[in-house]
Write a sequence for this structure.
């Protein structure tokens, strides 16, 4: 902070290279407003234990049904944020300004650089492939890609798949959680008892920029990988962004509940239910993965 206008002008350019703000003090203006805002940002952007990315506000609301403690909402470096505590760990849930892969990449990158967490996860809802999964199933993707990437030749897409996997140690621990009894426990106290026996599936989820409500399109996507069980609009982008940010390290995963089977019968009937189931899994998995990681480092 400085009261000298000339110094402030010069310092703003040079200090900005080091991410340091310069505020000009003036008795005739409200210098305290930007000063207070910078103090709040400094507090909010100190390193966090984890980050959760959601494409929709309803997906963030699913965490109301978890054992986590939700804090206040705020805007940090333009991101729609809400503090959350899971056990002894402190994190942030960030909601994208809109669904889609570009939005997911931008929000994930900005949030990772701002909060510098040890773990990042995505929670929410998705579509499933009929015959490979069922309504209410919780999908934990271990492999993903953008199914629209490639080149159209003679009216047909020749795919160019940039596949991304979650870290092997994370995958192993999540597979251990994918059993029928645990799946039932995630659904305790929720509506839609007809879905109580829906499974947890660890498998391939692909992402694209479009909502799919056509079985024929689903069949074309399946040609890229016979083990594709679900599809959404964000997971592949988030996983790829996080993988590059951590450069092979970090805790990275996603969990989304199937609320439709990518056909014309799509509706919102299971949206809130799916958001709650995914949020419960994500919050418990984050707590376990971070606890295991901390104990491993201690050893």
């Amino acid at each position: 902070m400085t009261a000298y206008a000339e110094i402030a002008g010069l310092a703003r350019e040079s200090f900005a290279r080091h991410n340091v703000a310069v505020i000009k003090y003036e008795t005739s203006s409200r210098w305290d407003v930007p000063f207070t805002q910078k103090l709040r940002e400094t507090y909010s952007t100190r390193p966090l234990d984890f980050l959760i990315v959601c494409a929709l506000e309803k997906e963030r609301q699913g965490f109301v049904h978890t054992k986590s403690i939700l804090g206040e909402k705020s805007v940090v470096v333009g991101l729609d944020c809400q503090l959350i505590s899971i056990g002894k760990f402190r994190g942030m849930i960030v909601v994208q300004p809109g669904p889609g892969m570009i939005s997911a990449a931008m929000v994930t990158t900005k949030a990772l650089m701002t909060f510098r967490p040890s773990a990042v996860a995505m929670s929410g809802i998705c579509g499933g492939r009929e015959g490979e999964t069922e309504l209410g199933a919780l999908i934990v993707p271990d492999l993903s890609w953008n199914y629209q990437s490639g080149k159209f030749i003679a009216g047909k897409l020749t795919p160019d798949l940039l596949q991304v996997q979650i870290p092997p140690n994370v995958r192993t621990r999540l597979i251990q959680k994918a059993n029928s009894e645990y799946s039932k426990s995630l659904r305790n106290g929720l509506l839609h008892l007809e879905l109580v026996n829906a499974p947890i599936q660890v498998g391939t989820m692909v992402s694209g920029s479009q909502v799919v409500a056509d079985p024929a399109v689903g069949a074309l996507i399946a040609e890229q990988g016979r083990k594709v069980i679900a599809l959404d609009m964000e997971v592949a982008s988030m996983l790829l962004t996080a993988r590059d940010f951590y450069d092979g390290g970090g805790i990275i995963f996603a969990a989304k509940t199937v609320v439709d089977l990518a056909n014309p019968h799509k509706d919102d009937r299971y949206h809130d239910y799916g958001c709650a189931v995914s949020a419960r899994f994500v919050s418990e998995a984050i707590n376990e993965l971070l606890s295991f990681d901390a104990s491993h480092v201690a050893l």
The chain is about 35% helix and 25% strand.
